[in-house]
Amino acid sequence: MNEAEEKNGKVIEAVELVKRFGNFVANDRLTFSVQRGEIFGFLGANGAGKTTAMRILCGLSKPTSGKIRVAGYDVYTQSEKIKQRIGYMSQRFSLYEDLTVWENFRFFGGIYRMKSALIRERADRMLGRLGILELRDTVIASLPPGIRQKLAFSIAILHEPEIVFLDEPTGGVDPVTRRQFWEMIYEAAASGITVFVTTHYMDEAEYCNRISIMVDGKIEALDTPEQLKKTYNAGSMNDVFLKLARRNEEQKKE
Amino acid sequence: MRTIFYIMQKEFIQVFRNRMMLPIIFLMPLMQLLILSYAVTFEIKNIRLHITDNDNSVASRALLEHFRSSEFYHIFGESADASFGMEQLKKGDIHQQLVILPGFEKQIVTGSTAGVQVITDAINGSAAALMNAYTLSVIESYNREVLSRSPGPPPKQVQVSRRYWFNPALDYKTYMIPGILVLLVTLIGMFLAGMNVVREKEIGTIEQINVTPIRKVQFIAGKLLPFWIIALAELAFGLALAVLLFNIPIVGNIFLIFLVASVYLVVVMGLGLFISTITNTQQQSMFLSWFFLVIFILMSGLFTPVESMPRWALQLNTINPIAYFIRIMRMIMLKGSGFQDIVQPLIYLSVYGITMLSLAVWRYRKTS
Ligand SMILES: Nc1ncnc2c1ncn2[C@@H]1O[C@H](COP(=O)(O)OP(=O)(O)OP(=O)(O)O)[C@@H](O)[C@H]1O
Ligand SMILES: [Mg+2]
Q: I need a labelling partner for A45 at 20 to 30 A (CA). Which of A186, A196, B92, B238 fits?
């Protein structure tokens, strides 16, 4: 934690974030902030611009304009400092399929300059918690998607980052596994890791402390789930989302 | 350092776990050596020769005897009429026609220049050049015999003597194999490291690395070193095959070969890695790599002598790493050249390698 961040407890702060691909505006003046320890949901339909924004926050992609700080550092000039403090689980599955579970742990732990004893200790603890210690030497390719995703998450927080970015971590996973996955997220949040998560599932939105809903590159709503339901006079987050989408359609017609 | 070690460890595991990889790495040198050294031979034995001796003297018969006793020639026909041989040449029955004109002996006796006419089927240019070279060497050996027998002091004008240094038997394999080994090392170096990076781009795992605080130099070094080691092992394997299977003599110092190879590899691997940083798919990367490879290989002097290339091609060759390495390899393996002889191109390759590697590191983007 450095000074700038200590002042207001904001670990992510974006002001007027814009990302253009040619003439196409993928992120249109996004302004939001995330508090330390929060679970922040990033919702939106396909192509809304969620991944684009997340990659900018992770220092994987340069923003076109805007003022953006992550973990107290500037994304334009201090992206390598940011990378030391964050974990990232990309939308595409990103473990090495031809390596075993343990080899993946060892590799990513090593890249984060963790001591080998520490890597081993944490890997064993995480695998034990997931109840899959016996899969330690199994090649990733032969594991079912649910377990892979849990492993990818474990490896994303192996080096105990301040913030973890999860891009649709539960895509294509059965409801039971999704539940378990969210328990892992809660555990990580309880241990002090700030969670920034994108999802399509509206029921998952209810699990977040605060959510932002993106439509066509813009943030259309940002609040706690309860407050959003009240504001939009909706029974569930699903209704909130549909109302927002409809409103957007009508605006376009005018 | 530890970061580089972790990448190397991972690459080695992946290479050796891949069932296709090991056979490719170790069968490739064997196949290349076999195919290229046996099948693509330029060596010509049994040159079919038609003889027309219009002098019919002791001297002319002595010359013909030199051709008859040469293992390269097969006398396919003899006639007094040169046009008969011409017909055969046109039909492709013979490769060469030798015509000795009347007065050949007289010219030799009087000490003036004696001429013979050699007509060669030159449809295949390099074969023709080689046949001419053989013919010349036969005629020269005859020349030497004549000179040694002639009375008085040896003629002032020294005969240009053409001898095949360093490869006296004109053995094609001996000449080709150093070059083939170079190709082998080049292919491994150029493709393995570069393709590996592009593959990670395609699968998406590179994102997971780019989001870590790894330094660009560490990444490139970690990708370079494993394949650098594999390529050197491959060279050792290839050299062993050359010596054990093909009886190719290695006249020079074997450590010198590896010293040069390790520097050379940095050049081609740097190029391969640089290409991987500017492409997004294996297809693009393959295409670009082959573009450079084909030009470099064809101009390298492996298949065609560098000496016969036009000026601009020679100038272009100053940036052709393969040309340097082939030349150095032949120097060390066939001539036994020492460090002093190759230090200049070696320095050049070093500078080249550092440049390519810096380009790759510079162009590699963790943030797009
Ligand atoms: N590199 C790029 N070049 C051009 N356009 C891009 C690029 N990356 C993303 N886009 C476009 O930006 C828009 C937003 O993409 P993004 O991946 O951020 O959406 P998303 O909200 O993550 O969608 P999904 O739910 O499908 O993952 C899309 O229309 C996409 O086509
Ligand atoms: Mg996305």
A: A186
Atom number in ligand 1 closest to CA A55: 18
A245 has a chain B CB within 8 A of its CB:
no
Q: What is the pTM of this model?
A: 0.81
Say whether residue B202 is in contact with chain A using an 8 A CB cutoff: no
- Residues in B closer than 8 angstroms to A113, CB to CB, are 2-3, 213
Q: Does A83 touch chain B (CB under 8 A)?
A: yes
Q: What share of chain A is helix, strand, coil (3-state, %, to 5)?
A: 45, 25, 30
C-alpha to C-alpha distance for A217 and A90, rounded to whole angstroms: 19
- Using CA atoms of A211, A216, A217, A219 in order, give the dihedral in degrees to the nearest 10: -30
The CATH label, of 3.40.50.920, 3.40.1710.10, 3.40.190.10, 1.10.10.10, for the domain at B47-149 is 3.40.1710.10
Shortest CA distance from A54: residue in chain B: B211
Q: How far is CA B109 from CA B91, B104, B141, in A?
A: 37, 9, 17
Is there a contact between A248 and A220 (Cβ–Cβ < 8 Å)?
yes
Q: Where are the domains of chain B?
A: 2-40+168-363, 47-149
Q: Which atom of ligand 1 is nearest to the CA of B368?
A: 1
Instruction: Calculate the average pLDDT of chain B.
Output: 84
Contact between chains at A103 and B10 (C-beta distance less than 8 A): yes
Kindly report, residue by residue over B180-193, the tens digit of the pLDDT. 889 889 998 999 99
A to B CB pairs, distance under 8 Å: 77
Q: How far is CA B84 from the centre of its chain?
A: 39
DSSP assignment of B103-125 equals THHHHHHHTS---EEEEE--SSH
Q: What is the whole-number distance in angstroms between the Cα of residue A60 and the centre of ligand 2?
A: 14
Strongest mean pLDDT among B23-27, B75-79, B131-135: B75-79
DSSP bridge pairs for A20: A25
Question: Which residues hold their Cβ within 5 A of ligand 2, which is an ion?
Answer: A 50-51, 91
Residue B29 confidence (pLDDT): 78
Taking only the tens place, the pLDDT of each residue in A195-245 is 999 988 888 888 999 999 998 899 988 899 888 888 888 888 888 888 888
**Identity of the residue in B6, B204, B212 whose CB atom sits nearest the CB atom of A90:** B204
Say whether the ipTM exceeds 0.85: yes
CA dist B183 and B234 (Å) reads 11
